[in-house]
């Protein structure tokens, strides 16, 4: 029973690649989560916008930017205080709408409703 079924050597076959060979690009494509594109996809992902700016805007729009409040929720021990103004809890709502630094530098191009955390252009 120690005899192999054939005399040929075993070899690996990478199914996501048509040639059966492993490639980093095909692995990356295989593990990437596929989601439907959002309405603002074409506005944000453009050649003339720097990729880091686009990535940051995407994180903000998808509510997946790392804040101290989120880090504390997953168990990181820290005080979730805004490092800019030292007053509010550092979350996206504070950083974008309520932090005095953001309000002073970004102007008042949006009107924020206090009963719902939505913004509408002025």
Spell out the key features of this protein.
disordered C terminus, mainly alpha, 6 helices, 35% helix
Provide a descriptive summary of the structure in words.
This protein has 6 helices and 2 strands, in the order ααααααββ. It has 122 residues and is mainly α. It has a domain at 41-111. It has a two-stranded antiparallel sheet with strand order 1-2. β1 and β2 (119-121) form a beta hairpin.
Residue windows where pLDDT falls under 50 for at least 5 positions:
109-122
Structural class: mainly alpha
Percent of sequence in beta strands: under 5%
Helix content: 25-40%
Work out the oligomeric state of the chains in this entry: single chain
- Tell me the major beta sheet: 2 strands, antiparallel
Domain Reverse transcriptase zinc-binding: 22-103
Organism: Coptis chinensis
InterPro entries: RVT-Znf
Pfam family, one: zf-RVT
Task: Give the SSE layout.
Elements: H1 24-31, H2 41-44, H3 51-61, H4 68-73, H5 92-98, H6 100-106, E1 110-112, E2 119-121
Antiparallel strand pairs: 1-2
Helix pairs in contact: 5-6
């Amino acid at each position: 029973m120690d005899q192999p079924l054939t005399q040929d050597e075993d070899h690996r076959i990478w199914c996501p690649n048509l040639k059966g060979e492993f490639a980093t690009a095909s692995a990356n494509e295989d593990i990437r989560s596929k989601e439907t594109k959002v309405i603002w996809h074409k506005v944000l992902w453009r050649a003339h916008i720097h990729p880091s700016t686009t990535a940051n805007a995407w994180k903000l729009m998808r509510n997946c930017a790392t804040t101290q409040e989120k880090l504390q929720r997953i168990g990181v021990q820290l005080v979730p205080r805004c490092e800019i103004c030292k007053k509010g809890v550092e979350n996206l709502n504070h950083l974008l709408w309520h932090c005095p630094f953001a309000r002073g530098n970004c102007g008042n191009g949006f009107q924020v409703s206090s009963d719902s955390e939505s913004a509408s252009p002025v």
